[in-house]
Amino acid sequence: xxxxxxxxxxxxxxxxxxxxxxxxxxxxxxxxxxxxxxxxxxxxxxxxxxxxxxxxxxxxxxxxxxxxxxxxxxxxxxxxxxxxxxxxxxxxxxxxxxxxxxxxxxxxxxxxxxxxxxxxxxxxxxxxxxxxxxxxxxxxxxxxxxxxxxxxxxxxxxxxxxxxxxxxxxxxxxxxxxxxxxxxxxxxxxxxxxxxxxxxxxxxxxxxxxxxxxxxxxxxxxxxxxxxxxxxxxxxxxxxxxxxxxxxxxxxx
Length: 253
Description:
Elements lengths: L1 H13 L3 H9 L20 H38 L18 E9 L15 E9 L5 E5 L7 E13 L4 E11 L11 E12 L5 E13 L1 H4 L2 E2 L2 E2 L5 E13 L1
Antiparallel strand pairs: 1-2, 1-10, 2-3, 4-5, 5-6, 6-7, 7-10, 8-9
């Protein structure tokens, strides 16, 4: 009410000029109490007043649109900033094995088809790769994933066992598999050989198992080196020994 009286006083002081009259026709005033919203005007606007009012309204519309656009940019920038501060996901926990039964291991191997003899000039290739094995609770071994080395073919994986050694009072994991070697192998071209895998079982203070010092061997007849004789006795086909051909590393997976 007092604001309206002030406007009227200005109009009476300066006269009905276009600026004051345009302001009076363009500015809405809200009354309270029993009266609803209405617009006050001292006189009917002429063409110039209407043009000025349209310009003011258009300017107000542009300012409102700019404000809305700035508000949207600020909101989107804040959202991106919050996303950039997102805490990265924690690294996956490494698998832990406390019992060999039904445990899964990734085996990285490197071995040859046959042991290298003393004074032998033949260069034996080493086959290396990875495969995944599961030592099932019933004593069988399951080949979960085939070797990454496509030169070798795993024909069959045999069962596994834990063995206690009286020599060093340690426990060992034993398992074997039939391996077919490629036709390019100098000693077993396209032939199959049973390979024996052995690793020491270590147990940490937190009861976590690890497999250490893994070796790969093949069983060979002693007669192959002694020409069938052991001292004065014929032992061909009777005595055999495990011969080293390579190593492997096993990690829980």
